[in-house]
Amino acid sequence: MLIKSSDELPRKTLFKRFPIPRNAQVPPEFRIQPGKVWPEPEGAENVKRLRIFRYNPENGKPPQIDTFTIDRDDCGPMLLDALLKIKAEIDPTLTFRRSCREGVCGSCSMNIDGTNWLACIRSMDELDEPATIYPLNSLDVIRDLVGDQRHAFAQYAAIKPWLQAEAPSSGIEHLQSPEDRSKLDGYYECILCFCCTSGCPSHWWNGDRFLGPAVLLQAWRFLADSRDQATGERLDELDDPFRLYRCHTILNCTRTCPKGLNPGKAIAEIKRKMITRQS
Ligand code: SF4
Ligand code: SF4
Ligand code: FES
Fold it and tell me: What is the predicted pLDDT for the residue at 277?
């Protein structure tokens, strides 16, 4: 199931040049319905309301938005703490991915108040009231907040994300100067959360052929590595009107990266390398 439209009222009044009727082209079985409003915790004075997207393909019902109210005085500070509390104490069927709760595994990426981010490093202080939580957009929804990332990881595998090099004749490891090592800064930190790819309009329309910002940032991470010896083959693979050049520098990717990385710059570096090898 792919979320194509929502009944969310816009938070801000924006000028609409081409208003589209709500739920246009969305079959009735996929229209998002109002869901269950769970009881508020008794006696709680400091509460947070979370409106959470729910979808279970096994019950045959359309997706819905459930509303949960959390006692913040009895909960950790982050959105992931609230989701874990809901799952443990209110509704054990709530489904989401998480692992590290440190912002390093990339599992808990979701759409939070309209922006792709990691639930474990998003403070509830920063959320709207009520906050609105959806799965990452543009991914097929498997259940609740879990999107299908198989295509994204298949694209990742396609760029051969490992060092390709002959063994050094000296028989020791490949050495790298501190200066060359610093060229990986801003790229090696990517945790493959796919917040950027999910927010990229070019990937929405051409995701079958355009590799998207996360995978292209990873491609640059290996192109920039002085120990890698497959630069020519890597560039040959990327030299394609869709795989690389469907990026139109809209920079949604850079705006949404929860690790503060710049996939747009990585893509520009690949394009520059492509040009310099042709000249
Ligand atoms: S800069 Fe390129 S990759 Fe990033 S959001 Fe825009 S089109 Fe997508
Ligand atoms: S570049 Fe940022 S948003 Fe994109 S996958 Fe890597 S960490 Fe996530
Ligand atoms: S749980 Fe690992 S990044 Fe959030």
Answer: 84
Distance 221 CA to ligand 3 centre (A): 22
Pick the residue whose CA is nearest to atom 2 on ligand 2.
257
Judgement on whether residues 77 and 185 belong to the same structural domain of the protein: no
Atom from ligand 1 closest to the CA of residue 263: 4
Domain check: are 206 and 226 in the same one? yes
- Ligand sitting nearest the alpha carbon of 98: 3
- 133 and 17 within one domain: yes
Same-domain pairing of 60 and 126: yes
Please write the tens of the pLDDT for every residue from 74-104. Answer: 999 999 999 999 999 999 999 999 999 999 9
Cα 62 to averaged position of ligand 2 atoms, centre (Å): 31
pLDDT of residue 173: 87
Are residues 132 and 159 both part of a single domain? no
What is the dihedral angle through the alpha carbons of 179, 183, 188, 194, rounded to the nearest 10 degrees?
170
For residue 142, how far is its CA from the centre of ligand 2 (angstroms)? 21
161-165 contacts, C-beta under 8 A, 24 or more apart: 161/218, 161/221, 161/222, 162/222, 163/222, 163/225, 163/227, 163/228, 164/222, 164/228, 164/229, 164/230, 164/233, 165/227, 165/228, 165/229, 165/230
CATH number of the CATH domain containing 232 = 1.10.1060.10
Q: Would you say the CB of residue 251 lies under 6 angstroms from ligand 1?
A: yes
Distance in angstroms (rounded) separating the CA atoms of residues 36 and 54: 10
Instruction: Tell me which residue range forms the domain holding 102.
Output: 8-147
What residue's CA is closest to ligand 2, atom 3? 257
What is the number of structural domains in the chain?
2
Quote the pTM value.
0.90
Q: Are 57 and 109 found together in one domain?
A: yes
Indicate if the pLDDT at residue 18 is higher than 90: no
Confidence category of residue 4, pLDDT binned at 50, 70, 90 = low
